[in-house]
Amino acid sequence: MSRKIAIERDQGFYGSVLSLAIPLALQSALMYSVTTLNSIMLGALGEIPMSASAIADQPFNIVSGIFRGLTLGGAILIAQYWGKGDTKAIRRVIAIGIRCSVLISLLTAILVIAFPAPIMGVFSTDKAVIDAGIDYLRIVALTYPMFAVSNCYMLSIRATENARTPLLINLLSYGVNILLNYGFIFGKFGLPEMGITGVAIGTLLARGIEFACVLVHMLCLNKKVRMKLSDFVKRDKLLFKDFMTYAAPSLLSEMIFTIGMSAYSVIFGRLGTTTIAANTVAEVLHRIGSVFFAGLSGASSVIIGKTIGSGDIQRAKLQKKTFNVLAMGVGLFTTALLLVIKNFVLSLYNIAPETYAMADKMIVINAIFMIAFAYESLYVTGLQVGSGDATNILIYTTIIMWGVTMPIAFAGAFWFKLSPLVVFVILKCDYAVKGVYGYLRTRGDKWIKQVTRDEKDLQAQE
Predict the structure, then answer these.
(1) 156 CB contacts (<8 Å, ≥6 apart)?
(2) Which of 30, 94, 73, 47 is nearest to 291 (CA)?
(3) Total H helices, total E strands in the chain
(4) Cβ(301)–Cβ(382) under 8 Å?
(5) How many Cβ atoms from other residues are within 10 Å of residue 270's Cβ?
(6) Pick from 243, 283, 269: which is nearest to 388 by CA?
(7) Per residue of the chain (462 residues), what is the pLDDT tens digit?
(8) 98-124: b or e for each residue (b if 16 or more CB lie within 10 Å)?
(9) Whole-Å CA distances, 324 to 19, 93, 228, 329
(10) Reduced DSSP (H G I as helix, E B as strand, rest coil) percent helix, strand, coil of the chain, to 5
(11) Rounded CA separation 27/4 (Å)
């Protein structure tokens, strides 16, 4: 007698997954499309501008990881308060996240503007690459505060099952960004030809448009969670304590992860410009695949958080099993996709034959690890986030990255002089180990946390 797989049978569940996953995947694709097209356009100018842009973006990658960590901590609370229907608490959590993000963004922007060359020097020893990226880095630093507000707000309202608004805002801002970057790089549409510096100016203008749209929606158009200026000045000790309880481990986890990604750049940066360029091209294909994981993990976080917030723990467990099945399907699909499109994407780059050959092999390696990446993404940024298991995420991701894969990769690259491709494989094993642990962690009940407070407790402090 055949045994049915224990998965969600309610069609409404799959409708919710699609309504969240598709906009989230499209938004992720839009974000990566800007990076991808910038890489392709700058690649047409040569390897130095392309590598300079990749290196100069590392500080932004770090600070955006910090913002994401703060917001993920807030999203844990928001998703579960959304399940309870408490929009007042949601407004205050969003305000706390924005205040913290803006403070960090201002401090980081000042540091980057004051010391661009030393910061670039952390990631590359190539003077030509550093010199080419200094002006780019200074201009892009001006976008940090605007991005802090926009990113925090849009990630927060996703936890209220509103993925459509962030998608529409990004359709506008990223579309403008791509057109401006093309115009400034090559001197089109009557704009001056500015190369890599033009990309920074285009990004700054597009971020300004995005910021304006976010303010209008946040203060005027969001009828479900209408923010007020007073929300940003009110002090809420209980919610701030809860926010930091979950934001602190999420923030540390994201910081450790993004610093780890930057450490990967340090490794490749010292293996030569050819390796930097090949890894940059391979990362484009990796990002194309990862947009599907962003959609699935984002949807799982919101849906699981809402279900736990409503008090239906048994259904949350069933939904977890369903997401496991969905992750396998998405992983297999992305593996096939990368292998099918790799030759076309490689043909778009003006790179040396040895760079082309190395990039081709890196893309194949990425494709092989797509299933592992699907599960790593599902647990680390999806199920365990929505369930409130933030502290455990911090512990195991830190141990795996910095206690296992990173030391082995550094030793392989600098002590044992392994080839760049072998080092690349070692680093990708990080996804597989995290995926396996995440699966084992969510087999019981320990990963499910109730993180909300009763409304009377929040009112009592007032």
Answers:
(1) 71, 74, 75, 78, 90, 93, 94, 97
(2) 30
(3) 19, 0
(4) yes
(5) 15
(6) 243
(7) 345 567 777 788 999 999 999 998 888 888 777 777 777 787 777 778 877 888 888 888 888 878 888 887 888 899 999 988 888 889 999 999 999 999 999 999 999 999 988 888 887 777 888 888 888 899 999 999 999 999 999 989 999 999 999 999 999 998 998 899 889 988 988 889 888 888 889 989 999 999 999 999 999 999 888 888 888 888 788 888 888 888 888 888 877 877 777 777 777 777 777 888 888 888 888 887 888 998 999 999 999 999 998 888 999 999 999 999 999 999 999 999 999 999 998 888 878 888 899 999 999 999 999 999 999 999 988 999 889 898 898 899 899 989 998 899 889 888 888 888 898 899 899 999 999 999 999 988 889 988 887 766 556 555
(8) bbbbbebbeebbeebeeebeebbbebb
(9) 18, 30, 39, 9
(10) 80, 0, 20
(11) 35
**415-449 b/e (C-beta count within 10 Å ≥ 16 → b):** eeebebeebbbbbbbbbbbbbebbbebbeeeebbb
Which amino acid is located at 135 in the chain? D
54 within 8 A of 124, measured Cβ to Cβ: no
248 within 8 A of 100, measured Cβ to Cβ: no
The secondary structure of 346-365 as a DSSP string is HTT----HHHHHHHHHHHHH
CA distance 227 to 322: 35
Q: How far apart are CA 293 and CA 331, in angstroms?
A: 8
DSSP string, 287-324: HHHHHHHHHHHHHHHHHHHHHHHHT-HHHHHHHHHHHH
Polymer length of the chain: 462
The Cα 195–Cα 141 span in angstroms is 18
